[in-house]
Write a structure and sequence with these properties.
This protein has helices spanning 2-20, 32-104, 110-126, 179-190, 239-251; strands spanning 24-25, 28-29, 139-145, 151-152, 166-177, 196-205, 225-236. It is rod-shaped and about 170 Å long. The strands form two sheets. Strands 3, 4, 5, 6 and 7 form a five-stranded antiparallel beta sheet that branches. It has a two-stranded antiparallel ribbon with strand order 1-2. By secondary structure, the protein is α+β, with helices and mostly antiparallel strands. The chain has five helices and seven strands. The chain has two domains: 27-106; 110-206 and 222-250, Ribosomal protein S6/Translation elongation factor EF1B (Alpha-Beta Plaits). Residues 70-91 are annotated as: Disordered. It comes from Chlorogloeopsis fritschii PCC 6912. Keywords: Membrane, Transmembrane, Transmembrane helix.
Length: 252
């Protein structure tokens, strides 16, 4: 009786183990639940592997390309700004050239000095056109240019900033006329195109002409005055003259 029951127990255990049908590895029975957990763990591991080996390098490459694109965009914007600045600099240079041309037109040159005597005579005679026959008529009595060539300004007489940049030529002028005529002539001289400076101005009563015998003096209007002054014409130095003036100043 005992032997029979033992045999039946062994057979029943073997039948139950064989009937389960789940694989056993290292004593672990791989049931559907265990298999599902293992598959999930393997999926997560595979995903992490793909992230680390595929996605992350691609993301880093994207970030690098994005950084390069930002750098290139910055360079493009910088070049655009540089181009705008260059255009602005060119415009300022053109404006400076125009201003320089306008400024140089204010100064005298050799040609204007050659015609200065004609211009002065024209100014003086223009005021005599409507005068009565026996009225005082303005006259240019002396026009004496300096014997030397125009000399560079180095004595700071017009300010230290002018030294070595301008030269001047002096002309001695002597005119006779009434006070109003003299003032009108000086104002007209200021309106001339070249830049002229009046210096050493002196005025005095002009001697009256002696009347003819038997005829009284028949002058009409105010008495004439004699006026003398020095007219200085300012001219810019050319590059060679600027260099020579700088060399002379350095020696001093």
């Amino acid at each position: 009786m005992t032997l029979s029951e033992d045999l039946n127990f062994i057979d029943a255990g073997e039948l139950d183990e064989g009937a389960s049908g789940f694989p056993v590895v290292f004593g672990i029975t791989f049931t559907p639940k265990i298999i599902g957990i293992l598959v999930g763990v393997l999926g997560i591991a595979g995903a992490l592997f793909m992230v680390m080996n595929l996605v992350m390098p691609a993301w880093e490459s994207f970030q690098q390309q994005q950084s390069k694109q930002n750098d290139l965009q910055g360079q493009v914007e910088q070049k655009k700004s540089t181009i705008k600045q260059m255009d602005k600099v060119k415009q300022e240079q053109n404006e400076a050239k125009q201003q320089q041309i306008q400024l140089l037109s204010l100064f005298a040159d050799e040609k204007t000095l050659d015609t200065l005597l004609i211009d002065l005579n024209r100014l003086i005679e223009a005021g005599n056109g409507k005068l009565a026959f026996n009225a005082v008529r303005a006259k240019l009595r002396k026009f004496t240019p300096a014997p030397n060539k125009p000399e560079p300004i180095t004595d700071s007489s017009l300010g230290p900033g002018v030294n070595g940049k301008l030269k001047r030529s002096s002309i001695t002028i002597d005119i006779v006329g009434t006070y109003e005529q003299t003032q009108s002539i000086l104002r007209n001289i200021e309106r001339l195109q070249p830049l002229l400076i009046v210096k050493d101005y002196q005025s005095s009563l002009a001697p009256e002409p002696a009347p003819e015998k038997g005829k009284p003096l028949s002058r009409i209007g105010p008495a004439p005055i004699s006026t003398s002054f020095q007219l200085q014409a300012l001219m810019p130095l050319n590059p060679d003259e600027v260099a020579a003036a700088a060399k002379a100043a350095a020696k001093k």
